[in-house]
Amino acid sequence: MKKTMTKVVALTAVAVALSGCVGSNAVTGKLMQFNVEVVDNRYARAGVNFLLAPVYAITTAADYIVFNSLEFWTGKNPLTGSPHIFDTKTDTMIDINDDLDDSLKEAPVAPISYNRQIEKGEMNQIDENTFRMDITYNTGETSVLMGVKDGDKVSYYMDGQLVSETSIQALEQLAAESA
Question: Taking a C-beta distance cutoff of 8 angstroms, is the pair 61, 19 a contact?
Answer without folding.
Answer: no
